[in-house]
Amino acid sequence: MDRFSADQIREYEDAFCMFCKYDKEQKSYLPTTGLRDMLKTIGFNPTDEQLEKITIEADADGNGRMEFHEYIDLIDKLITEEDETREARDSFNAFDFLGEGFVAANDLKEALFYIMEKASEEDKQNIVKHFKLEKNRKIEFEEFKEMIIMKK
């Protein structure tokens, strides 16, 4: 929760409370079935695939409920993923300056070799194999993003 200001916590708490229910002990929880609507109120619009994945992660015990602290952890994760995607998109666009929707593997390999100037030839070749840059092929954004995020 250190990531969020007191105002942000209140905003997220307000959204949580709009959709929450109460158990016998009057503890609030969010039914995972209401997760999409709640996320939309705070500016997230996950795809069906993303929603399924985050619901499973957020409801680790499988009881169909998310407590406030789990919800805050989820928001933190979603913001981190958005930041990573934005950074990956910016990097991708630097290589795809013509806006073709792909990056040539050779161009990416040359850039990596430039960055790794002082690395051994073996290290360079390991990177090429790891990211499958041996052949000159087209790398679209999703694959590029996976490369960037995996590297972190």
TrEMBL record:
Pfam family membership, one: EF-hand_7
Any one GO cellular component localisation term in the record: myosin II complex
Protein name: EF-hand domain-containing protein
UniProt similarity note: Belongs to the aequorin family.
Gene3D superfamilies cross-referenced by the UniProt entry: EF-hand (1.10.238.10)
Entries under PANTHER family matching the protein: CALMODULIN LIKE 3 (PTHR23048:SF0), MYOSIN LIGHT CHAIN 1, 3 (PTHR23048)
Molecular-function GO term, any one: calcium ion binding
Membrane-spanning parts: none
EF-hand domain boundaries: 46-81, 119-152
This protein's record includes keyword Calcium: yes
Record keywords, A-Z: Calcium, Luminescence, Photoprotein, Repeat
